[in-house]
Amino acid sequence: MIRNRLVLLLSFLFLMTFSSFGQKIRYKDYRDDISTKNYRDKIINQKYSPFVAGVCNYILPSAGYFYVGEPLRGVLVLGSEFVTGSVFIYGLLMSMSVDSETGRSPDGARAIMYSGMMATGLIQIWSIYDVVKIAKVKNLAYQENKLTIEVKPGLFFVNQNNTTVYGLSLSINY
């Protein structure tokens, strides 16, 4: 039972990362062609809210990238946040360990801790700025093109006769 749930969850996560690759509009295709200067004057209808994307990224690092349909970028940002956060925690643990003879923490422990903390903060601030820019560029690109192909996976649970059924659905919108 747990194995089935794990397979279903992994399949869903795979489809979520795959979903944006089916879209016609990708940020990397339009980032050099579209300017976000005077964005509020240019935009009529927004597909993605830059504010929501930024807040999602602030609350849960890289969630905004999944919201705007850039999951690969989100995974990379999440991985870098994890690495720099791990460096911070390693430095924190090193600085808390005290030598019994000298009563001092190991040399460089605080430097490792502060560098991990600063790197995590910088990546967080940059990712919020980046995801807001991506949302704006993609909104302007959608407004220009009017046609997109989007693959959306879904995960559902149904309770029938005291038995829970799990499944995946896949819808294609254009």
Strand-helix topology:
Elements: H1 2-19, H2 27-30, H3 39-42, H4 50-59, H5 63-67, H6 71-96, H7 109-145, E1 150-160, E2 163-173
Antiparallel strand pairs: 1-2
Helix pairs in contact: 4-7, 6-7
Describe the protein in words:
By secondary structure, this protein is α+β, with helices and mostly antiparallel strands. It is 60% helix and 13% strand. A two-stranded antiparallel sheet has the order 1-2. Helix 4 runs antiparallel to helix 7 and helix 6 (71-96) packs antiparallel against helix 7. The two termini are 36 Å apart.
Report the sheet-strand fraction: 5-15%
- Count, helices: 7
Shape annotation: flat
- How would you characterize the largest beta sheet? 2 strands, antiparallel
Helical content band: 55-70%
Order of helices and strands: HHHHHHHEE
Beta-strand segment tally: 2
Roughly how many Å is the radius of gyration? 22 Å
Instruction: Quote the average pLDDT.
Output: 78
* Strand adjacency order, main sheet: 1-2
Unreliable stretches covering 5 or more consecutive residues: none
Strand pairing plus helix content: what structural class?
alpha+beta
Question: Terminal Cα separation, in Å?
Answer: 36 Å
